[in-house]
Specification:
The protein has 125 residues and is of the alpha+beta class. It is 24% helix and 15% strand. A hairpin with a 2-residue loop joins strand 5 and strand 6. The protein is globular, with a radius of gyration of 24 Å. The N terminus is likely disordered.
Length: 125
């Protein structure tokens, strides 16, 4: 009995130590994944509450720029031809859309998943 108790404790400690190990796998950020020359996933950005435009309007948002230095909301149509390749996000209906992502292809793969105005604004002329 004296021999059995220390062995059980040692075995329990070994099992618990094995369970507490964590394996960390480094993965590239979604904006770093490139397939056939374009990103496989859109970037994301955190926009503070209260900075999204009113319904029916759009606002360009540049990551790393303070909220007070962002462009004001405008009617979405005013952004035509000024968005693609800008490095910005389009704030529309409570969502930040990556202006450099290929939303047209995304829409073809998942019909109805992207507002028409976002597809139009982010497509090259």
């Amino acid at each position: 009995m004296r021999f059995l108790l220390p062995s059980c404790l040692a075995l329990s400690a070994l099992v618990l130590a094995g369970c507490s190990r964590h394996v960390v796998v480094a993965r590239p950020a979604p904006d770093a994944i490139v397939v056939n020359g374009s990103r496989a996933a859109p970037r994301s950005v955190r926009v503070p509450p209260g900075h999204y435009p009113p319904p029916g309007q759009c606002r360009l948002w540049y990551a790393g720029r303070p909220p007070g230095h962002q462009p004001p909301p405008v009617p979405c149509e005013r952004l035509r031809g000024r968005v693609a390749g800008s490095g910005a996000f389009i704030l529309f209906n409570g969502v930040a859309w990556d202006a450099d992502y290929d939303w047209r292809s995304h829409q073809r793969r998942k019909p109805g998943s992207v507002p028409v105005i976002i597809v139009e604004l982010t497509s090259s002329p």
